[in-house]
Fold these 4 entries.
Entry 1:
Amino acid sequence: MTEATLTWHRLPTRVLLLRVLEVIKSFIIPLVLLFVINNDWSTTFGIILRVGILLFLLLDVIQKFFGWRNFRYALDDKTMYIIDGNWIKKEKSLPLYKIQSVHSNSPFLYRLLSVVELTFDTNANSDDASFKLAGVFPNEAKRLEDILDQVRHRKTETDLPVEEETDTTSEPVAIEKPASRLLYAISTREIIIASLTSLSVFAIFPVASTVVSSIDDFINLDGTFDQVGEWVISASIIAIGVLVLTVLFLSVIIGMVINFLKYGNFQLERRGDRIRVEKGLLNRSAKEIPYEKIQAIRIKETFIRRWFNIVGVELVAAGTMDELKDESSTILPFVKRDKAMAVLNEHFNQFTWADTLHRLPKRSLWIKLMRISWFGLIISGVVLYFFRDYAWWLVLLWAIIIGGRLLSYMTTRYAQNGRFVELRTGAFNVHSFLTDKPRIEQVQVTQTPLQRRFDVCNVLFSTRGVLSNEMIEDIPKQEADAMLKWFSRYTVEEDMKTPG
């Protein structure tokens, strides 16, 4: 790269403060326990432990300093250049036209210091598929996003890669940022209902367990546990009941607070040719998915939320990097089914949902019930051999196993509708999956000896990009062969297109 002709930018000085605060935050529990609660320097082990913690803290701060000092970035009209590294400098460049989306993230500390973290995603399947600017001013973030919009606009207008342009002296065309269109915003009422119908009401237990475990590593809490156990044994039923209700009430409150912090001000928008999801109160994040990269739509229904007709919707996107995959793919975390379908039918009309789905034949139920449950057999053997007094719990275990198979038979549906295939699978938690033929990478049909006797089989669908597999089990062999034939034959010109 020609450094003399480029204008290089550093991250703001406050980013160094941010990184130091993050280091202190990661060491906060041992620092409080060793230097505040139990500040004992009388033993050799105590001195070595405390000095070691301080040395590790100092080394981490020095590393963050050199990482901030060495980091620089620059842009010309075609390429972004990065110089990075803590002890060893690394240089890399990335053509701007390869950047498919930009994700912004503003954790609480970032918002306090008025900086934004930007992640540039190329949607490639490699270690260099993305890179971050971990702390830039909002106006700089907007400038970078505008530059990328201009690159996308030029690429769309010319239908040629930016790197093939020959006129480097022409001025970049000033274009307006794509107008945002709000597709859905989650209300306070929806967050409250979602909190009450999810396992987040039990959030107090893992939180309390983590805190107690961290403290117990430095301070022995066995005596405290013994006192609590003695109180529970001697307390009245009313006192224990009040304690349980109090804990459950606190769990509900904590679950609601967590969901409000995570999904507050949730907005689903469309900006030009991409979907944008913004959410969060303390930690504000915004992530994008290009329309052309959408490979499939998945609708999720948990066991409890099915009673309230609440679903979650996520997109299967090609090439989405692992660290952003789960977050960026969820476009509707919890909404009523009719509202979710209205959004999908109106704004994702490149996918067509089937009017009716086929059920499994009755022989599929028999094969599900006859299939061996190794988990149930192993648990039953252990209980009968070591804990025979608790053998009656096995009735509940096998009731859950058999009930799950009955539910799986009742909920499983499938349909092949033109160039689309739609699957509905699951037992207690149900997933609906929709994609079309051009986006399918492969179709695989498998059949076990037991399935062969009942003339049923499994069909596995794999979509393009970051391979996403979806399987439907125990469908008639004739239907599976029809799906395989449907996928392997291209009779329409449009079927040959490979989106994304």
Entry 2:
Amino acid sequence: MTTIARATDTLTRDALAVLQPGFTGTTAPDWLLRRLDEGLASVALFGRNVSTPEQVAALTARLRAEREDVLVAIDEEGGDVTRLEVRTGSSFPGNLALGAVDDVGLTREVAAELGRRLADCGVNFNWAPSADVNSNPDNPVIGVRSFGAGTDLVARHTAAYVTGLQSSGVAACTKHFPGHGDTAVDSHHAVPRIDVDGDVLAARDLVPFRAAIAAGSRAVMSAHILAPALDPDRPATLSRRILTDLLRGELGYQGLIVTDGIEMRAIAGTYGIERGSVLAVAAGADAICVGGGLSDEDTVRRLSDALVEAVRSGELPEERLADAAERVRALAGWAAANRPSGGAAGSADTEVGLRAARRALRLTGADGFTPLTEPPYVAAFTPVANIAVGDETPWGIAAELSRLLPGTETGSFTGPDAGGEVLAAAGKRRIVAVVRDEHRHPWMAAALDRLLATRPDTIVVEMGVPRAEPRGSLHLATHGAARVCGRAAAEAVAGA
């Protein structure tokens, strides 16, 4: 079998071109630079690759010294899913907060400022926005990453986000086609299934993607979901019916199609990453996202070899691989042509994220509430974070309340005894209970029951999807757990 270590022929260059791999560390390893010279056209950045904006800018400059038109991709949704601010929390609220405000001009401004910051760091391809209609309130992986549960709401904000992001010279990648909102399973772990008929999918889930296409989204990301009404046999990422017949044919989309992470269990656990990559390209995908979990040179070699061998065996038409590679290079060309000169991507609006977070805040019980003047005890009821969000990024309001009310104490709690544990830890201090998707976690609801029965003056801050009935002496719904959402809530609690 030919390996990329020994060959850089056209076929191998095309196989390399369709990969979007990650790597470890905050500097580019030698193997990655070598692969760029051999045909690799894209590099993916994750939180592990980021320390400061200056470091990211130096990293991307080094990549471009090897290949000037390289696509540098990142999963920077803002809100709960942030890579650029993975260790501090995002300066931007996520989609649910923007949907709650429902000002498309604001959404466009937020996306443009986020894009400006990415462009200043040399990033030119963002796996965002999420265009999923969060129709299933028990969805474990979308939630606050969606603009909301209303189709038209999601559609207009998806279009605004695409327009804003791309105005900064950063290519948008609208996801997760054909829609991941009506799922109760996280595709990082297994294959979700959407059992509704085609008319429902067309009227609900596909509408935001049509809006994104009309807005000129340069890329669309496929979902590892099974939608039997569209294809009873294969998940969307591997389905010709969905990627070629529906997305390309019926919806008329001509841009880049990229897969969700190919090492996610929905694909890796069923087909394996090599066969999954071959089937995805054969189905109509142009780029294979890999590197969230597998981030080494061997993964690149394995996938490139699998694509080359599939062409040579006749399983994958050479023309399909060549077409996919050409679409990647075309997007790289667009990004290079639209790269802001001198590293500047327009004027900065550094406060737009905070303004949006403040506007998204919803208070229940504010009429009778007196802002705190003494440092409280902040109890964070902490669920297990999904893989897309990760557990590296801090969340909550304790840090912001500590700034406003020095001496604030905090603790993290989970499980059926959390309510009693908070009471013991807080002592006589006023309690601020911070929850995330209370409606999805019975233990969390039970903990609040216990806490409020004893301390009805407790303030409750919901930083997930606000589906549970508001309760507490003051209830604040932030519509996300970004750092700016925490600041907006802390300001309300302290009357700042």
Entry 3:
Amino acid sequence: MTYGLLKNLVNGEFVTSDSGDEIKVFNPATDREQVGSVPAMSREEVARVFAAAAAGAKTWKKTNHLERGRILINAAELIRSRREELVGLIVAEMGKTRAEAAGEVGKTAEFFEYYGGMGRDGFGEFLADARPGTFAARIVEPLGVVLLITPWNDPLLTPARKLGPALISGNAVVIKPATVTPLITLRLAEILHEAGLPAGVLGTVTGRGSELGDALLDAEGLRAVSFTGSTAVGKEIQAKLAGRGIRVQTEMGGKNAAVVMDDADLDTAIPTIVAGAFAQAGQRCTATSRLIVQKGIAGEVRARIAVAVGKLRVAPGTEEKVDLGPVVDQGAQRSVRSHVERAVHQGAEVIARRELEGAAAAEGSFVEPTFLGITTEHDIWREEVFGPVLGIVEVDTLDDAIAAVNDSAYGLSSAIFTRDLGTAFRFLEEADTGQVSINQPTTGWDIHHPFGGFKDSGSAFKEQGRDALGFYTRIKAAAVRTH
């Protein structure tokens, strides 16, 4: 299906680029089927989006919290009513399986429903004051205009994760989706507009990041930037905005480890690890990339995961019973294969690799799911692959396992599989990651759970849950003498 040219939302209207320049979007399952296109905006057009957002921020700040919540809940209902269309677009544009895309659509609706419900919560509190006749309060205010820069791997869910708290807090939002997957974000903008957002409260920007980066970050009136993407780009944004009084939230890379202890329940551990490593073609920042196994059980773990990898079905996401679809484009395909080739050149062992068959072998940006025996000296131990590749190392003790987990510049997510409560709680305390799982995957957190990593994986501001509101708001202390 071809979706044609989708337009940007600017000041309550859907518009094309002044120049007529477009960016084409292709299906990664074929690399030749055009799914649709979006306008390639200019710097001047970006400035117009921010000017509209500045006006929209004033309107939205004065809008009753209940009305803000009602609009977000309306959006959730519209998303559910258009589930099939949105699922089809995610599969066509990004390459996910239908099951993965359906999960993304469902969670997106839940984000708007959850934050919409907060319209009935208190935004501030009364404070005690020792002075007679004095009323004191803690007042929570929106920041103003915030910029969201979102990635291609969850092109509907990640915008929702940011838009929900930003909008319920009273901010106007400018959103720049990834160039390779912009279509679904523009569809989401259409839904929010239909749900009742006033003009200027949401604006979308599509274009080439290399051309628009400065225009976005230098925009007049910008108060905050929330970015999800690579660590390199996230650090560039942090550096560029340093000292300017613009709040920055970054959710960046990961090199997530799962530990299997000798006492683990392998019937639980093995399928959980395989799903965490290979689902969504490994294109999750929380994907399991490193497997750390106690030596006493390492042989069995290797054998069972090898069997599971051999059974994975790689095919276009439109087909039935598919375990993983393509990676997002040919550049990603080359990058993942390059990581594997370099690891093998450095001495890594290919324990199992599921060779491509049928349509996956004939065309498209598909990658072979690969299970490697590696050491901590190999580059792939430290570098984020962002593809269906899992590396295993063996350790002697829990101390060794924790040290291996923490031996990374990243600190996003980790997991341990054990039946011992003491082992579990020690791991929980000592794993230097923002998310820690016990007998659960490194992936898959619910919408109300705080999300974000340590070290090079993120900033101090968490996403999701009530914690997300802290990034999009400021606190004003008030004291009024009444008599």
Entry 4:
Amino acid sequence: MADILTPALGESVAEATIAKWTKKVGDPVKRDELLVELETDKVSLEVVSPADGTLGEIAFAAGDTVTPGAVLGKVTEGAAAPAGEAAPKADEAKTAPAPKGGGDASVPVQVPTMGESVAEGSVGSWQKKSGDRVSKDELLVEIETDKVAVEISAPANGVLTISAEAGSTVTPGQVIGQIAASGEAAAAAPKAESAPAKASSASNDPHLSPAVQRVVAENNLDPKSIQATGPKGNITKADALKAASQPQAAAAAKAAPAASAPPRETGPREERVKMTRLRQTIARRLKESQNTAAQLTTFNEVDMSAIMALRNRYKDAFEKHHGIKLGFMSFFVKATIAALKELPAVNAEIDGTDIIYKNHYDIGVAVGTEKGLVVPVLRDADVLSLAGIEKGIGDLGRAARDGDLTLDQLQGGTFTITNGGVYGSLMSTPILNMPQAGILGMHNIVQRPVAIDGKVEIRPMMYLALSYDHRIVDGKEAVTFLVRIKEHLEDPQRFLLDL
């Protein structure tokens, strides 16, 4: 198979839009035959077949945006293909390293698919440098996305040439390096220009090709007001030019708010550090949560005496029997699930004008890591024992701290528990993990004087906080939910006996 690569697009040109394919999958093609036309904001480019054979795969359709070095498709080389390939054309030589030595080819190092809704990532630190010899399946680099880190290993033995440096923004399928399978260093090649940081997937702005962006910018147009006629609902250059010719559209665009101010200069005792993708995602999702849900927080307090006495009495036997320590989280998960079963609105979510009630209990557990807060999900927690919950939470916590969480482990939770008490928090108002309708905040256990049967006693007390979406959870349900958790924790035999 021979890769059809996006060529270098020229200085300052970072991406192009596929105008059309001249062949379809299964069509026979000849070397140097025109296959696809690309449109940039400056010129149109033609991409030709790298070999004789059959067009085996089309990776990007008309209207899609691609970056230099991206694999557009593949040609399955036929038996009639020339035995020895001629030297690559000048345009092709700009896009990929030319292997040295006979007919041995270079194997591309490509960005894998990074999961549903993950459109881009950032290149982390390379474990090797250009010119280093690598072995097949040896770890080369990690791609950091807004959810997880994806490891890329060497696809073959040979010598590595890097074309996307650390920090570059890359997309699935993009070629970020080459491995000379012949074992000799690949010829030096210009580094592929990384795609510019794209707007958040949560943005409502339509995607614009470079040519359209140029027309929009020059005419101060609002993309949302342009009627799109292109493939997949994209705005074409003709659409943008038509909108620019309408005076009222231009006048409305000029009235739009001015662009945000440039970043301020840092002082001599200050340091500017770019936010990681994970931190950017945390910031964006928390702000979206505040802007979307009608959030309200209600509080209660729980006497932890019974739980602490039970734990102290059986913790040694529990650890000996199950091989794991007995903590407080398993009791809170059990109490939470019992309350969720009684008050299903807290375990629901809003979908448009509908409410989805979830008859399963996948509990998200907030975990603080060096890179930021993540919320892995403990699946079907309602059918787990105390030991099963402790083991599940322990495994998720280790995976989070080691950066080994998968996308599946971070998605689909129905309710979240966050424990600020491990850091000493006395009280807080947690923010909803959208689209969930509730999040329970645990806090520090503090010895406080409380009135018990008319007497003042010192008890280990914890404040509980429930933040909830007031659009579907009423105040009565929220308060009852916390009261049920309080009752189960102060009398743990209730949920142990399923009462």
